[in-house]
Amino acid sequence: MKLFAKYNRLNILATIVIFVIGSCTFYLVLNYILVRQVDSGLVSEKEEIRTFNRLHGSLPEIVNTKDQIISYSQADKIEKTTYSNVTIKKKHKEAFRSIRFNVDVAGQNYLVIVSRSLEETEDLQQAIIVVTIIMVALILLVSYVINRLVLGKLWQPFYDTISKIQNYSIAQKQEIAFPETEIDEFTLLNRSIALMTRRAQDDYQSLKEFTGHAAHEIQTPLAIMRNRLDMLIQDEALLQQHAQPLVDIEKAVNRLSKLHQSLLLLTKVEHRQFLLDEEVEMSKVVRDKVYEYRELVHTRSLNIDTNLQETKILFHQHLAEILVGNLLSNAIRYNVKEGGIFIKLTNERLEIANTSSLQAIDKQHLFQRFYRDPMGKEEGTGLGLTIVKQICDMAGFTIGYKFVEDMHVFVVTFRKPS
């Protein structure tokens, strides 16, 4: 739920609760005042009857009206003056407010009941309640509209900042620019994010330069090691005495060489040193890579099922070969004996699926550098999928992964023509 929607909901809910409590309180206070006003009129009528009795020694003649009814009756005992609400049936039942009091007329005790209609009071209450409800509804409506218009405008710089952050890439060399805002909090937020991104970008550039320099610096000693190793292997006497150590050294050198090549490739891709201006036949690239790995596929008794549509995309030939080669290499290396590999190519996407004894890959580490599945026994640099991801990002492709029916499925979606 968005902050604005949550605030608006809480604001409206609080306003409704306040108005309901206020309206109930207002109704009770209004009812109390109106009833007290009617009681005041009843008291005045009581005083008039008693005054008439003192002056004339009798009760005044009863003159009942629509809004007032008076009745006399002899009483055996004297009661306290009391007030009550009663219902009197005339043409229809009506609510009245009554006062009961005693009057001594020539030594005879009489009970006098004076009742006044509450119909006008109830009409007034209803009118006030209707007006109050309409006012509350208008206030809520106006408050909602104002909140949407005003708060939406006030929060617009925040959404602009979020949009800038979502479209920002640390690999970009230009600084992230935020629009000016008059809100101090948003200005502070933008400055803090801009400072953070500058620091992250500087660190990223330093790391990229370090990786590139390290990869280049490794090249010379690696070449020397390989040459010296070749010389040692050619010495048959030495080879017979130290065959296994030399084999281990050769494996280590080969692995270091692959790591060096991968780091160099990553550096070139990150620095965007490849021009994506070639028309690449992806179907031919896939067929060539399948043919290239035919011996390894045969050794592991794997079955490759291809469904290739003739597809041409604007890409880079070498990067296309690396992209397909890394995905196909992983599908072969992490497969099971007599397993299957399924390749599907269309104008929109490339899909490579393979059987495996490994469970689903943790997506948090899927494209992480030097990450290898702890359950995997195959040796590797841990950079294959990282390189694939970097190539896809540079080319504007998207790469997805899913684990379906004990199969690892990688899907590369190509750019749509603009």
Tell me what you see in this structure.
The protein has 418 residues and is of the alpha+beta class. The protein has three domains: 3-153, no CATH class; 169-273, Helix Hairpins; 278-413, 2-Layer Sandwich (Heat Shock Protein 90), CATH 3.30.565. The protein is built from ten helices and eleven strands. It has a five-stranded mixed sheet with strand order 6-8-9-11-10. It has a four-stranded antiparallel sheet with strand order 1-4-3-2. A two-stranded antiparallel ribbon has the order 5-7. A hairpin with a 2-residue loop joins strand 10 and strand 11 (407-413). The radius of gyration is 46 Å and the shape is rod-shaped.
Largest sheet, spatial ordering of strands: 6-8-9-11-10
Q: What would you call the structural class? A: alpha+beta
Instruction: Report the oligomer.
Output: single chain
Overall morphology: rod-shaped
Helix/strand order, N-terminal first? HEEEEHHHHHEHHEEHEEHEE
* Radius of gyration (Å): 46 Å
> What percent strand?
15-25%
The average pLDDT is 81
Distance between the amino and carboxyl termini? 34 Å
Count of β-strands: 11
Quick one: biggest sheet? 5 strands, mixed
What is the count of distinct domains? Answer: 3
Low-pLDDT runs: none
Proportion of residues in helical segments: 55-70%
- The total of helices stands at 10
